[in-house]
């Protein structure tokens, strides 16, 4: 009976795996639903729309431009988390949205000054400005916005709302309720005081909030509001409150914007760049599966099938959730393949330990999955906490990275804990029961890691301090502590009208290398304007001499005239507000991870040593950026966030083993116990780091220059994460344990 059930599971696995491979490669039905080719891709992979606006105000202030850019950035994220908004020249704003081919379809959504209105229900003569449509259940305007404005029915515009935040308040009975708290400007405060007074006198009449051709809320006025702080109640849940607050925040642009040009732009990277990255992923996946089979035998084969299912589910889920994928996103997926091996390594190492302890293969399965669960669960939950906070508070690249990361974590846990378990039990049920097919790992004598802790601590201090020292030297000599790319510092946009229509691959092979050589910028972004011979080249800020050299090089190489080349200064695409959002998100996620580890391990020393080790890894990679002068751009944020998740996961595994060994009440002294725990998890640390390193190394070898700049720091982070988890975290906890007594 069990054998038949095992055969059924194996047959179903083959069919399901085949179906998932077919779906992710080809798709279902005539439209190819679920195929990888339908995943929303960024401007670098698929092109999109580029729109340039000009402020109608002749000399806008820096604050007005910055505020408008930030609000536009938050608004265009409804199209893609990878959309970019940046300043060009003194009074122009560029908006680039990937995956869109019709500029007119989005122009009406962008650049509308004051498109958010607070409208009084009735005008001075008692005529309704809006009414409830009983058939649709929606409020609708009875006049045009212009007519309402003429009659004085516009209470406030979006520019007069200083801030809007979702919060939890209390009703008259003391019950909690979801609200939106508004803070108005001084001018808005006076207008709102008059409007709310009139609404109360009219019998608690309403003031409708109108945004982009529809009412988003029509709250009744309960009291006259004179202090410029108001609350909107009646939200069904926290998400509704957050959505309304977000709409109000981005609803008012400080500047009136006029469109001066819009272009459909092609992908920044050619087919060759994409295909080499995908080829690297395929080669890496095959190498990892072969490695797992060599080390773990039958369980290794099972993990290979689970990994294939994981990759297919990840691609299908990217379609289902409409997530935007860029080339760094592909790198993130490739990295997640390496990290997904981790859970399988933990499980199968446990199974081999159980077999070596004299347990039957069947019992070893049960104990292996049971003992591995806490390490897998805690490690992934801590990373998932970071992903949720980054998605909640971050914007742009950070939000896109967080979504892809969260998806990968959930799917990798499912394939490791569910798919692998069913598969290995099915193989056992059909008769593959000899322990030689599963391997045996005998426990070896503890390696004396803690005895060398002073050497490890000294080495880590040197590595960590290298960053600030090198950054201080460069800041003194060049004015830039790090080699900031145009995403962080702004740069120069050079528009070139070539004599002939160049393909994307020709731009990659001929134009980009020339620009890199002349400017010294290894992160050049070249974008082709569809339907023309124009190519827009973005680089770091170029001085007049370098601009002249670049112009001359382009004219000599491609036979151009000076009139074919124009240049403009552009602002950073990662605004100061977006950077601050990212910093706040990382800090909050770190605090929440610390609290979670404290809660799970019942000891603050576990949590604090884990966070110190995490900080150590980030600072070492920062030092590498400082020394190597690799460009610090949006990829830098994704790289650092990846290392945070990777580092904490490795630390949790060792702490989980220390906790388990302490519960066994062995005769080992504490130092030997910690050494034994690190030794027992050493194989896992090496294998996981090796498989992840293989994936990223192949990406570095086979990828284009921008991907190599992403892969190199990741390789450093992987090596550093393995070193800190083995040599630093256990020693840190031991020092705290022996020097700091646990609080009662």
What features would you describe in this structure?
The strands form 5 sheets. A 4-stranded antiparallel sheet has the order 2-3-1-13. The model has no long low-confidence stretch (mean pLDDT 83). It has 5 domains: 2-24 and 270-437, Up-down Bundle (Multidrug efflux transporter AcrB transmembrane fold), CATH 1.20.1640; 46-113 and 258-265, Alpha-Beta Plaits (2-Layer Sandwich); 116-252, Gyrase A, domain 2 (2-Layer Sandwich), CATH 3.30.1360; 450-468 and 575-739, Multidrug efflux transporter AcrB transmembrane domain (Multidrug efflux transporter AcrB transmembrane fold, Up-down Bundle), CATH 1.20.1640; 491-570, Alpha-Beta Plaits (2-Layer Sandwich), CATH 3.30.70. With 744 residues, the chain is of the alpha+beta class. The chain is globular, with a radius of gyration of 29 Å. It has 22 helices and 17 strands.
Annotation, overall tally of beta strands: 17
Q: How much strand?
A: 5-15%
Measured between the Cα atoms of the first and last residue, the distance is: 55 Å
Secondary-structure arrangement, i.e. CATH architecture of the largest domain: Up-down Bundle
As residue ranges, the low-confidence spans are: none
Q: What characteristic shape results from the CA principal axes?
A: globular
CATH superfamily of the largest domain: Multidrug efflux transporter AcrB transmembrane domain
Number of helices, counting only DSSP H or I runs of 4 residues or more = 22
Main beta-sheet annotation:
4 strands, antiparallel
Rg, Cα atoms, Å: 29 Å
Strands across the major sheet, in which order?
2-3-1-13
What's the helical proportion of residues? 55-70%
CATH class of the largest domain: Mainly Alpha
The total tally of domains equals 5
Mean model confidence by pLDDT: 83
Secondary structure class reads alpha+beta
What is the fold-level CATH name, i.e. the topology of the largest domain? Multidrug efflux transporter AcrB transmembrane fold
């Amino acid at each position: 009976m069990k054998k038949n059930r095992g055969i059924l599971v194996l047959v179903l696995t083959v069919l399901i795996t085949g179906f998932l491979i077919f779906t992710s490669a080809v798709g279902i039905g005539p439209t190819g639903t679920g195929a990888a080719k339908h995943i929303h891709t960024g401007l670098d992979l698929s092109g999109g729309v580029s729109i340039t606006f000009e402020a109608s105000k002749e000399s806008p202030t820096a604050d007005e431009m910055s505020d408008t850019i930030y609000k536009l950035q938050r608004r265009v994220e409804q199209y893609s988390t990878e959309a970019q908004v940046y300043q060009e020249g003194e009074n122009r704003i560029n908006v680039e949205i990937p995956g869109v081919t019709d500029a007119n379809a989005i122009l009406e959504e962008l650049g509308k000054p004051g498109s958010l209105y607070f409208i009084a229900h009735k005008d001075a003569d008692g005529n309704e400005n809006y009414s409830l449509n009983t058939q649709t259940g929606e409020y609708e305007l009875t006049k045009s916005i212009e007519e309402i404005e003429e009659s004085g029915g516009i209470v406030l515009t979006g520019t007069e709302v200083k801030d809007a935040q979702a919060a939890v308040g209390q009703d008259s009975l003391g019950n909690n309720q979801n609200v939106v708290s508004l803070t108005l400007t001084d001018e808005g405060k006076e207008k709102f005081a008059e409007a709310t007074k009139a609404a109360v006198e009219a019998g608690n009449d309403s003031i409708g909030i109108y945004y982009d051709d529809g009412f988003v809320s029509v709250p009744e006025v309960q009291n006259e509001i004179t202090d410029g702080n108001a609350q909107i109640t009646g939200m069904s849940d926290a998400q509704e409150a957050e959505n309304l607050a977000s709409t109000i925040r981005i609803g008012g642009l400080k500047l009136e914007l006029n469109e001066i040009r819009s272009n459909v732009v092609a992908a920044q990277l050619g087919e060759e760049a994409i295909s080499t990255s995908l080829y690297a992923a395929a080669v890496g996946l095959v190498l990892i599966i072969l490695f797992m089979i060599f080390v773990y035998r039958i369980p290794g084969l099972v993990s290979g099938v689970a990994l294939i299912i994981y990759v297919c589910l990840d691609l299908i889920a990217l379609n289902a959730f409409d997530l935007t994928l860029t080339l760094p996103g592909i790198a993130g997926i490739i990295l997640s393949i390496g990290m997904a091996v981790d859970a399988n390594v933990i499980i199968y190492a446990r199974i081999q330990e159980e077999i070596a302890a004299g347990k039957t293969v069947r019992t070893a399965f049960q104990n292996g999955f049971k003992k591995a669960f806490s390490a897998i669960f805690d490690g992934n939950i801590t990373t998932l906490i970071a992903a949720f906070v980054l998605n909640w508070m971050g914007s742009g690249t950070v939000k896109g990275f967080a979504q892809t990361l969260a998806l990968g974590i959930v799917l990798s846990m499912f394939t490791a804990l569910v798919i692998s378990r069913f598969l290995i039990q099915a193989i056992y049920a059909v008769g593959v029961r000899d322990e030689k097919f599963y391997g045996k790992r005998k426990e070896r004598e503890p390696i004396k890691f803690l005895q060398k802790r002073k050497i490890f601590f000294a080495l880590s201090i040197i590595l960590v301090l290298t960053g600030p020292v090198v950054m201080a030297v460069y800041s003194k000599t060049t004015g830039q502590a790090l080699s900031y790319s145009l995403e962080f510092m702004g740069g120069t946009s050079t528009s070139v009208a070539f004599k002939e229509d160049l393909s994307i691959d020709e731009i990659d092979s001929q134009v980009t290398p020339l620009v890199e050589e002349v400017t010294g910028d290894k992160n050049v972004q070249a974008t082709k304007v569809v339907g023309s011979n124009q190519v827009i080249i973005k680089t770091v800020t170029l001085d007049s001499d370098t601009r002249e050299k670049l112009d001359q090089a382009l004219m000599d190489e491609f036979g151009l005239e000076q009139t074919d080349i124009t240049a403009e200064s552009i602002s950073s695409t990662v605004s100061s507000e977006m950077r601050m959002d990212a910093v706040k998100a990382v800090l909050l996620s770190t605090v929440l991870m610390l609290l979670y580890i404290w809660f799970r391990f019942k000891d603050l020393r576990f949590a604090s040593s884990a966070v110190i080790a995490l900080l150590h890894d980030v600072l070492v990679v920062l030092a590498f950026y400082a020394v190597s002068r690799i460009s610090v751009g949006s990829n830098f944020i994704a790289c650092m966030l990846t290392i945070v998740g990777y580092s904490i996961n490795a630390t949790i595994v060792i702490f989980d083993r220390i906790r388990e060994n302490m519960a066994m009440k062995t005769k080992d002294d504490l130092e030997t116990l910690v050494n034994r725990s690190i030794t027992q998890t050493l194989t896992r640390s090496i294998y996981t780091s090796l498989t992840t390193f293989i994936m990223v190394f192949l990406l570095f070898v086979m990828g284009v220059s921008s991907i190599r700049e992403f892969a190199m720091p990741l390789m450093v982070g992987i090596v550093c994460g393995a070193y800190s988890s083995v040599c630093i975290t256990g020693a840190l906890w031991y020092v705290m344990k022996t020097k700091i007594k646990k609080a009662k």
